[in-house]
Amino acid sequence: MRKDMNYLVITILLLCCSVCQTIGQDLLSVRDAVAIALENNYAIRLTKNIQRAARENNTYGNAGFLPTVTGNLTQNNSIQNSDQIQNNGEERSLDNARNNNLNYGVNIGWTVFDGFGMFARMERLQELEKQGELEMKRTVLSTVGDVFTLYYTIIEQQNMLSALDSSIHISTERLRTAQNRFSIGKAAKLEVLNVQVNLNEDVSARLRQAETVKNLKTSLNSLLARELDIEFVVDTAVNIDGALVYADLVDKANAFNPDLQLIVLNKRLAELDLKTVKAGRYPVVRLNTGYNFSRLESSLGFVAQSNARGFNYGVTASVNIFDGFNQRRNERLAKIQIENAGLLIEQQRLLVHTNLKTAYETYLTNLELVKLEEKNEDIARQNLSITLAKYTIGSISSVEFRDAQENFIAAIARFNTAQLQAKLSEIQLKELIGQIDL
Fold first, then answer.
1. Which family does it belong to (predicted)?
2. Whole-model pTM?
3. Residue 187: which H helix or E strand, with range?
4. pLDDT at residue 285 above 90?
5. Is 339 a residue whose pLDDT tops 60?
6. How far is CA 363 from CA 391, 406, 407, 438, in A?
7. pLDDT tens for residues 358-411?
8. β-pair type (26-28, 232-234)
9. Residue 61 CB neighbour total at 10 angstroms
């Protein structure tokens, strides 16, 4: 009897500690979890940097619109032993003759026409910046979807943990009742032992379930890129949007699905690549100007010293006349890339519609399962209540009561799973249409 009482005390303390730990933890709402992920998550931060790089590259100078300005300085010195014979036959010689040549100045070059290639490059840089924004959107959607999935999985497992706490409480009361019945001679010792085995099973299941919840919370902390041992509790309310309409989802997916938008943008980039290649058929015109200074000193020569400074200017033009048919080949390849991009758009659109159709059917099925399992849980709860009353007065055996208890726990588990799957189906649909709301 003392051993049984000790076990009861340990069980009660276990439940009390669980309650105390929960009270001491901060509530983490799904909105807060998403906000933390948007700020800390490494994938999002890396994609932000890629987006910033694309924005920095989107300049007129990078596209080739602006002139280039260079400063030049050249200093050449020499010491030579020189011998010269002039035209008149005079011989001149000088050892260690010094020669100095200094040139410096500023030169400006400006390509004013390159077959409209600079315009195509500018448009391409703008599209690449949009690509960075779409990549950012896709990463955010994926990360938020992962946060939602983990958060609601924790809710499911936390609800299951609460159900096991209730089961332990019921089994503890059963053990107390069985011990009272045994003490007055209305039950055999075997019944007490069976009930205690059931209680042991419930406590063991709770320990495993607590480990599952703990590991899921660690995974969520990792996804939020914060300390892994931060304790928190979740809001166990699960709100499922049951008003999604398939036709509306298809329209939004065509307009906002990030994967589809990226492939459409890739086709635009392929078209701009063709423009850039076609620019090779036109001449390139470049203006050049500058202001330079030169100084020459010579110990032996006709001119001992000279200085010059002033402007220089000019224009250069070049055109590709023949390059072994490479221009034509490059244009054909660019057109093939455009055709492939168009095929990829149709392929991706079909894939999105297929995923949307299957996910929507799953969503409808899960909504029905939620309604069904909610009714089953209510029936199992009523059955357990009636069975408990009968067991208390001794009209049914502990085995029958255990069956009702296990049916109740199983009904709760199925209801929690149905809620989770319905919520995950909703999240998947909203991720496919590129619009996950909180």
1. Belongs to the outer membrane factor (OMF) (TC 1.B.17) family.
2. 0.82
3. none
4. yes
5. yes
6. 41, 28, 26, 18
7. 999 999 999 999 999 999 999 999 998 898 888 878 788 878 888 999 999 999
8. parallel
9. 9
182 CA to centre of own chain: 62
Residue 229: phi, psi to the nearest 5? Answer: -95, 15
pLDDT, residue 42, reads 94
**Phi, psi dihedrals of residue 315, rounded to the nearest 5°:** -140, 140
The phi and psi torsions of 405 (rounded to 5 degrees) equal -65, -45
Q: Where are the beta strands (DSSP E) in 32-165?
A: 68-85, 91-113
DSSP states of 9-61: HHHHHHHHHHHHHHHTSEEE-HHHHHHHHHHH-HHHHHHHHHHHHHHHH-SHH
CATH class of 2-40+114-283+319-432: mainly alpha
First to last CA, the chain: 54
Give the largest Cα separation in the chain, rounded.
Answer: 148
Identify the sign of the CA torsion 141, 145, 151, 152: positive
**Window from 13-17, 119-123, 146-150, 316-320 with minimum mean pLDDT:** 13-17
Alpha-carbon distance of 182 to 165, in angstroms, equals 25
Q: Specify the DSSP class assigned to residue 242.
A: -
Percent of the chain with pLDDT over 70: 89
Measured at the CA of 271, the angle between CA 266 and CA 276, to 5 degrees, comes to 120
Rounded to the nearest 10 degrees, the angle between the axes of helix 42-57 and helix 30-40 is 50
Under DSSP, the state recorded for 321 is -
